[in-house]
Specification:
- The protein is mostly beta strands and 127 residues long.
- It has no helices and eleven strands.
- The protein is globular, with a radius of gyration of 14 Å.
Length: 127
């Protein structure tokens, strides 16, 4: 079983930065996928960013490209979502997602492809 523990959400002003963390335990493969999705009440879940191991660069939604970065600290077994230049429309509950397979590129944006989800962390952006 995989466990994901998220942290780093909070309340910030537009233009500020936040870094979300997702600590992973219990993975069973060296080839795997991680992603961030966000959820606003009453709206569909939205893909934010994804990355795969052992190869493949990060993938971003057009709405966050150039502002957000996804990365992983292998020593801490923790993934990060660095969010810069935050906008009010970025406010949402952010969820970390994980799968024990290296998903093909076209599946990274599909939440149904991931087997495990974190509980979410709230990001609020004031204008």
């Amino acid at each position: 079983q995989v466990q994901l523990v998220e942290s780093g959400g909070g309340l910030v002003q537009a233009g500020a930065s936040l870094r979300l963390s997702c600590a992973v335990s219990g993975r069973t493969s060296s080839s795997y996928s991680m992603a961030w999705f966000r959820q606003i009440p009453g709206k569909e879940r939205e893909f934010v960013a994804a990355i795969r191991w052992p190869s493949g660069g990060p993938v971003f939604a057009d709405s966050v490209k150039g502002r957000f970065t996804i990365s992983r600290d292998n020593a801490k077994d923790t993934a990060y979502l660095q969010m810069n230049s935050l906008k009010p429309e970025d406010a949402a509950v952010y969820h970390c997602a994980f799968d024990n397979s290296r998903l093909i590129l076209s599946r990274l944006r599909d939440g149904e492809a991931y087997g495990y989800w974190g509980q979410g962390t709230q990001v609020t952006v004031s204008s």
